[in-house]
Amino acid sequence: MGKQWEERKVSLGGAIIAGVVALVFGAFVGANWTKFAPNFLPYLGVRTTTSHDWSELNEVYDALLENYDGELDQDLIIEGAKKGLVAAVGDVYTEYMTADEAKEYEAALHGEIGSGIGIEMALREGYVRVLRTLPDNPARKAGVKAGDIIYKINGEEVYAEGTDDISNKLRGAEGTNVELTVVRDGEEKTFKMTREPINNVSAYVDYSGDTAIITVTRFDNDTGAIVQKMVKDEFGSKGVKKVILDLRGNGGGYVSAAKDLLSLWIDGDSVLEQKGNNANDDTTYANRGQATLADIPTVVLVNGTTASASEIVAGALKDYDKATILGEKTFGKGVVQTLVDLSDNTLLKVTTARWYTPKGTSINGEGITPDVEVKLTYEDSNHGRDPQLDAAKKL
After folding, report:
1. What does residue 178 show for φ and ψ, rounded to 5 degrees?
2. pTM of this prediction?
3. Better-scored residue on pLDDT, 367 or 9
4. CA angle 350, 130, 256 (to 5 degrees)
5. Can you give the pLDDT at residue 382?
6. In this structure, are residues 294 and 266 in contact, taking their beta carbons and an 8 Å threshold?
7. pLDDT value of position 48
8. Which of 50, 98, 117, 290 has the maximum number of C-beta atoms within 10 A of its C-beta?
């Protein structure tokens, strides 16, 4: 009985001491909760909020309410305030999206762009120009060419609008008609087309003798798996001895897909380092046991619209001497965005870190300079010439 009581006494004493410590600690944390909460709650999966003085915004709204000659739509004003708040950060990659914009963004990220005419465009030399037309789609069939300036849609001038607005006007229900007017060599050309579902695969392969030409147009969730399957199922029977990886015009996508693609050449080593002020430093490693192309001569084609995840691939292959980079300097997007779901299906795309190649090189704003520089002009594209691909085949 004596021993049992002694053990219980020790246990009770420990409980009393622990209780006092917990009480003191709890009182201290409670008194300083606003200071500790932002650092503590994320570990519990709780999103923290901060309190700010928005009186100046209220002042502006009150002044509008009192003086504006018309009715105010409070919902539109709130959406505008959200966009302005995020835009004021001054980062072109950080963006607030309404529910409709978020839905369109997610669809485009997965290649679900509905029906349209099948062109890729971007702002070039002050105008929105056609970068390329997609195979087996209305624009290419009609004669739209790379370099064309988009001037009018259905007779309405759109040359001063952004790519998103122009894309929205070109898309529409399957089977409906659209009239596109472009400017080419100073002359207007008008094309009448019928919208079709866009054939927009993220990766495909062609063969030229014993050379496999893998084209990756974007990094969707399953892009890496698609290419891995092509390599596994076809390369042996095709007798592939060389690979050309075409990343021209690839604006990026999921980092995980870039990692899966790189795992065909790099076995388990680091392919990407991320560093950010508000996030833990992180290193991404290639998968192990999948590097079936590690010893296959490889050329990577890049240009000025090769960006983000596609630059991760080109940078890692260059650092490990797994490929020759050929073409033109890449875009230079060396930052990582995180998608944050907000209320009412809205979305925040926010820059959370900068990324570095395995050798610690930052390409943000600089791009990747190719080992072999070869230009590709609009005239080359429009006449079916591809000097970059031709040069890659000769290496």
Report:
1. -145, 140
2. 0.71
3. 367
4. 35
5. 67
6. yes
7. 53
8. 117
